[in-house]
Amino acid sequence: MASLLSILVVIVSSLLKGLTGFGFALLSLPFLMLWYPAKVVIPVLMICNLIASVFIILQRKSEKLVGGNFRLLIVSGGVFTVVGVLILSYITEDTLIHITGLLIMVLIALSLLNSKPMNVRLPKIVYLLVGAFVGLLTGTISVSGPPLALFIQKVGVSNRQFREIFAWFSTVTALVAIFGYWYVGLITKEVLGMVLIYSPILLAGTVVGKRLNGVLSVTVFGYLNVGISLVSGTMLLLR
User: Fold this and answer.
1) How far is CA 170 from CA 15, 183, 212, in A?
2) Which of 38, 115, 121, 194 has the fewest Cβ atoms surrounding its Cβ within 10 A?
3) Other Cβ atoms within 10 Å of 64 Cβ, number
4) Which among 207, 205, 200 has a CA at the least distance from the CA of 48?
5) CB half-sphere exposure, 12, CA atoms < 13 A
6) How far is it, in rounded angstroms, from Cα 179 to Cα 187?
7) Closest among 56, 69, 48, 196 to 122, alpha carbons compared
8) What is the rounded radius of gyration, in angstroms, for the C-alpha atoms of the chain?
9) Mean pLDDT, the chain, whole residue set
10) Residue 40 class from Cβ within 10 Å (0-12 exposed, 13-18 middle, 19+ buried)?
11) Helix, strand and coil in the chain, % to nearest 5
12) Do 131 and 75 contact (CB within 8 A), yes or no?
């Protein structure tokens, strides 16, 4: 029963990623942690995220979409992902569950904030600090979508740039995190088996979600998933 429910969660989360460009781990992580150990689920989601992000990067582009400041953000994120991996390897399962539940509630609140672009040119140090914070989150709980999305939207970029920046950040941080997980012994046969099951669902769901974008309101679907995530985050806090 848990396996069937987990596949359903992955399907819904994949549709969200296709509709909005992110949110796969935010929605699926708290539910999957109800049925599987956190230190199994987090590497699984990270590998799935890498596959989906590489899929986006390999699509043809007619222009350069990732500028210099965003490259700094990506590099900073990759470096601090290592710190997140070290935290994950040493923290206890119960503590990780409660911290994850709390962080998910905070990240959901961030995702609801006003995302209108600022008319201010930010210094490079801001990009470095944001990259460090998001990389730390990525390495620890594999969820980085809301704060990164909020920052990119505040800076003000096109939809194509948004998608590309997100894909590159996710690819770099995921590669670093996966190597770290392997080094500390978190990449197991169970993890790889779950990836083999979930990754095709993720890719298919992403494609379908992108097509649904013109039919189903992203806002309505997003708020529905925020509500579901709030419930699941609360359940993790109470465990």
Assistant:
1) 18, 20, 23
2) 121
3) 8
4) 200
5) 18
6) 9
7) 69
8) 17
9) 77
10) middle
11) 80, 0, 20
12) yes
Give the residue carrying structure tokens 């987990």.
Answer: 6
Q: Please report, in tens digits, the pLDDT of each residue of the chain (239 residues total).
A: 557 888 888 888 887 777 666 667 777 887 888 888 888 888 998 898 888 778 777 765 555 656 677 888 888 888 888 888 888 888 877 777 777 777 777 766 766 665 566 666 777 888 888 888 888 888 887 777 667 777 777 777 666 677 777 778 888 888 988 998 998 888 999 999 999 988 888 888 877 876 765 565 555 655 655 666 666 667 666 66
Provide the token pair at 186: 């978190």
Encoded tokens for 166: 């997100």
